[in-house]
Write a structure and sequence with these properties.
Length: about 210
C-alpha cells in the first residue's frame, strides 16, 4: 500500500511540474507577443511595470516562474487582464457560463446582506468579486484579510456606508469606495432603499511581493 501511495504521489508531482512548465512556456510567449505588439523594448516594459529588465527577459525565455505579483504588474503595464496573460492558448475561444443555481451565496450575520460569488474560482487566492444585495439597515462585518489587501465597492443602487478603523465614507449609485481591508471593516446599507453593489477584493498576492 505504501509503495502504491508513493507511486501516486510521484505521478501527481510529475503532472504538476509538467503543467507548470507548459504554463510558464506559454506565459513567456504571451508576454513577448504583447510587448512587441505595443512596440515596447525590454527596458521600456521594465520601466512601465516596475519589473526588472533581466526578469522580463528570463520570463520570455522560459527561464523562471514569476510570482503572481510580477504577472500582475506586467499585465497592468500591457493593459490586459491577468486571466488573458495566464491563458494557456490565446487562439482558443473561452466562454464559461455559470447559472444562478451554480452561484454560491454568502449571507451576513443579520441576514440582510447577501454576496453572490461571481468571481472565478481559479483567482480566489488573489482576486475575488461579488454581487452584493442588501436590505435597508443591512450590516456586513468582515474580519481583516491579508496584509496589503484592498477592497472596492461600486454602488449600483441605493446608498452604502463603509467604516474602516473609525473612518466612515458614504457612496451612492454610480460612486465607488476603495479601502484597505486588512483590518476589521464594515459595510452598511443606509437609507430606505435596497442596495446593490459590486465588490472586488484584491488580495496581498496581487499587489505585494
Amino acid at each position: 500500500m505504501q509503495e502504491q501511495a508513493e507511486r501516486i504521489e510521484r505521478g501527481r508531482t510529475r503532472d504538476l511540474l509538467t503543467g507548470a512548465q507548459a504554463l510558464s512556456g506559454q506565459l513567456g510567449k504571451t508576454i513577448q507577443r504583447l510587448r512587441k505588439a505595443y512596440n515596447l523594448s525590454l527596458s521600456e516594459l521594465a520601466e512601465q511595470s516596475g519589473v526588472a529588465k533581466s526578469i522580463i527577459s528570463q520570463i520570455e525565455r522560459n527561464e523562471t516562474n514569476p510570482t503572481l505579483a510580477t504577472i500582475w504588474r506586467l499585465s497592468q503595464a500591457l493593459d490586459v487582464s491577468i486571466e488573458r496573460v495566464l491563458a494557456t492558448n490565446d487562439e482558443e475561444p473561452f466562454i464559461e457560463k455559470a447559472s444562478r443555481a451554480d452561484t454560491p451565496i454568502l449571507v451576513s450575520e443579520d441576514g440582510r446582506v447577501r454576496l453572490a460569488i461571481i468571481g472565478w474560482v481559479k483567482t480566489i487566492e488573489w482576486l475575488q468579486w461579488y454581487d452584493v444585495s442588501a436590505d435597508p439597515g443591512g450590516v456586513l462585518d468582515s474580519d481583516p484579510h491579508q496584509r496589503g489587501s484592498v477592497e472596492s465597492l461600486s454602488v449600483r443602487e441605493g446608498v452604502f456606508e463603509v467604516e474602516v478603523a473609525g473612518v466612515v465614507q458614504t457612496a451612492r449609485a454610480g460612486e465607488t469606495l476603495r479601502y484597505r481591508c486588512d483590518r476589521p471593516h464594515t459595510v452598511r446599507c443606509v437609507g430606505e432603499l435596497q442596495g446593490r453593489a459590486t465588490m472586488v477584493v484584491i488580495m496581498k498576492a496581487a499587489v505585494m511581493e
